[in-house]
Write a structure and sequence with these properties.
The chain is an alpha+beta fold and 96 residues long. It has one domain. The protein has three helices and six strands. Helix 2 crosses helix 3. The longest helix has 14 residues. It comes from Janibacter cremeus.
């Protein structure tokens, strides 16, 4: 799937628990039968608070990424969202 900008909104699905600290975020998918924690490091971790407060636009996520990504923060956001979506840790929602 190719993620394009525009009016797309992204958020974490129900059942994803998380805690942030020192350049990383620990995630647990409580929907799983035997959930295992997943440790996400910067720069992807920088997106998590915005996603958790979502739904967030690509632009909002790009602004969050600008704090830790030097070049092509928009490309970084698209790649990070694809990775997180493949792991069922984020989902796209309809624009309001």
């Amino acid at each position: 799937m190719t993620i394009a900008d525009g009016d797309q909104r992204w958020r974490t699905p129900e059942g994803i628990a998380w805690v942030a600290g020192e350049g990383r975020v620990a995630l647990i998918d409580t929907r799983a039968v035997e959930p295992l924690p997943l440790l996400v490091h910067e720069p992807v971790a920088s997106l998590w608070p915005t996603l958790a407060d979502g739904p967030a636009t690509i632009e909002q996520l790009r602004v969050a990424a600008d704090e830790v990504v030097e070049d092509d923060s928009a490309g970084f956001v698209r790649a990070a969202l694809e990775m997180l979506q493949d792991a069922s840790l984020v989902m796209q929602v309809e624009p309001e």
